[in-house]
């Protein structure tokens, strides 16, 4: 496998009994790339992501994430990635500062580094006035941006985002994508799932899963040209309809 790629996947498969959830998918992701991983509910994208972040063992195939093998080095993968789930990992009954301190400790940062990072994050996100308020009292958009920033607190090589902008207004979604672009410009690879097809347009490349297989993979521009349509939503609909 090419060591210049931060994610390399070849024929990766996950089988549950008689059901093949992920069927021999192959792709790679470059450093600093924003890679969109799309598919309808049940298409297999969540199962695939779980294998890549080291919390589900593949049935067969090969894959490396941040240079570590998904079969034999799952714990090393977890140390070198950030992860933000759709439901957010923040604790509502802790303050903004306490959440940052807690997760900084989980990721193994020193007290000095956590203090430095907390000051930077709070200033960058404009949370100075609410730093000592419970996270549960914050608007959803602020929680999202804080959760994303906390997932990067240990300077990971890759961050996995699972439906990160679900349930928020368009303005907050745009602000969130500004954070994604900033991370990408800093060399962090962003692997993102989304069901908002307009967000697929923001990605450098996009893969679309249908029934456990990757049925399309390219830049948004080239996919629209390939399927002779105007939007990524039209690409998705064509694939979904077969």
TrEMBL record:
Where does it localize? Membrane
Tell me the keywords, alphabetical order. Answer: ATP-binding, Membrane, Nucleotide-binding, Transmembrane, Transmembrane helix, Transport
Report the residue ranges that make up the ABC transporter domain in this protein: 7-236
Cited Pfam families: ABC_tran
From which organism does this entry originate? Polaribacter glomeratus
Instruction: Give the protein's recorded name.
Output: ABC transporter
Q: How does it sit in the membrane?
A: Multi-pass membrane protein
Q: Which GO terms describe its cellular component?
A: membrane
